[in-house]
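[Q] Does anyone have a clean structure-token version of this?
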Amino acid sequence: MKNLNGKTIAVISLGWLGDTIINEMLCCNIKKLYPDSRLVLIVSKTFEDLGKIMTCDKCYSYDKSNEHKGVTGLFKLVKQIKKQEKIHTAILTHTHERTVLFAKLLSPKAIASLYLKNYNPLNLFINKHYKIDEKEFFSTYRGNFNANMLRLLCNNYEIDYKTNIQIPHEEDLKTTEKFKDIIPFEKDYIAISTTSKQEANDWDINEIVNFTSRCELPVVFIGTGRAHDIAQKIKSYNLPNFIDITNKTTIMDTAVILSKANCVISVDTGTMHMAYLLNKPTICLFHQPIMIPQWYPAYLDNVKILVGHKYLDEKTKKIIKLKEIQSTDVLNLVNQLRSK
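[A] Here you go.
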């Protein structure tokens, strides 16, 4: 494909936090390959703050539940973007019908994406098809997978694994001021996130309590929803180093708090991906081993992994525990990472 310097490239990622932030590798490589291009990032409204820390020239948010709800709302967003941008190439990293249609309405000369399943007629809009077999798809780290889509635009390009997440100084100051009476920013502390969308991925509350009681550092507990309920139960143990900030953080707050932590412990969720992209020593807790190849960045030396095994029984709707991640193993890894 011809040189895209001077052109506008749109990366469209309308998935969850983890799905979105791992596109940092793709975005960095776009700017490395085409430094004079204009890079536009389009994300879900909930994660619009990522536009302040990820590599891009402009970020637009898709508010599908309110302002951009339905077909009328989608056309409204398209009109807003086309008024400001002349998009030459769109790269779709979270492929579904709405995203393909959205990209086509932006009128780019090229759309790069996986094909939709079942010979969907919308595939006719995808003129840069990323071909990958199912086995390779499920065995490739998703950050690498998305970055490799750049080879549709430049065949011989070698992907650079470096990323460049940057927290604006004013956002750092804002969050530090907001939590200065709760979090000891001037000292070492551990940030921990133990819940995700799927309850089967959660770290066991008894292991969290055991870890916190034996950890010599303050443990800052991050999360929303179910994490808040778990935090209230942990508080009943009166652990002096347990700091609960559940339901109190924005995406930007979370980024700042992770960036200042000595080490981050997280189950497989967006917080985990944000932590290692901030170059923080990170311990990834996986309770579904099948997800490891897609979501564990094995190329990073300061990211370690512990594996349990749990799943949701579809008949009984109960979580079956085959193996729980032990607090002793987590504590040992924390000490290893801190000693480096």
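[Q] Thanks! Anything notable?
[A] The longest strand covers residues 38-44.
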